Amino acid sequence: MVSWLSKKRRFDFKPVVISAIIFGSYYVLENAEDGILFSKPVIYAQIGDMDITSGHINLYGNNQFYAVKRYIEWKDAFKGTYQLDNDTLILKRDDLTKVTKGLFTNCYIFNKTRDSLLPCQSGFNKLAIISKTQKQLRP
Predict the structure, then answer these.
(1) Which residues have CB under 8 Å from 23's CB, separation 6+?
(2) What domain of life (predicted)?
(3) Res 139: pLDDT
(4) Which tops the pLDDT comparison, 40 or 130?
């Protein structure tokens, strides 16, 4: 052991660099939201409290949305565009209710204090607005 330590050996950085590239790529791919990786959401709204089935919607300033339905061990993600008419938010994806199995609907109305989104149709849960940026959504 002493003889092995006494020999001057150079440390090989190649495995460290390769591992950093692999883990960095994995992180970027895992957190990429279909072309909106480096964009910050204007509004982040959530349904449920991380229970068995919950979800959230990110609204971006370029009129794109990203909806996520979470389960215990996995998640489904859906994207599309949205339109804002006064206090009505319209998610322009016709199959959103079907693919999320009724978690999200296509139409929401901001409540008076703008801290939640109320569904236009009955049978859906409201979305609690968790965070907003300074940049406001414009109709």
Answers:
(1) none
(2) Bacteria
(3) 46
(4) 130
Q: Which of 69, 75, 76 has the alpha carbon at shortest distance from 54?
A: 69
Give the tens place of pLDDT for each residue, 73-100.
888 888 889 998 888 999 998 888 888 8
In this structure, the strands spanning 43-47 and 54-59 are antiparallel
Residue predicted with more confidence, 99 or 136? 99
- Alpha-carbon distance of 46 to 59, in angstroms, equals 12
CA distance 111 to 134: 19
pLDDT digits (tens, 9 = 90+) for 15-26: 999 999 999 888
Write out the DSSP string of 64-122: EEEEEEE-SS-EEEEEEEEEEETTEEEEE-TTHHHHTTTS--SEEEE-TTSSEEEESST
Residue 116 Cα distances to 13, 47, 87, 89, 132, angstroms: 51, 10, 11, 12, 11
Q: Which helix (H) or strand (E) holds 132?
A: strand 127-132
Query: Which of the four pLDDT bands, split at 50, 70 and 90, describes residue 31?
Result: low
Query: Which residues sit opposite 69 in a β-bridge?
Result: 55, 76
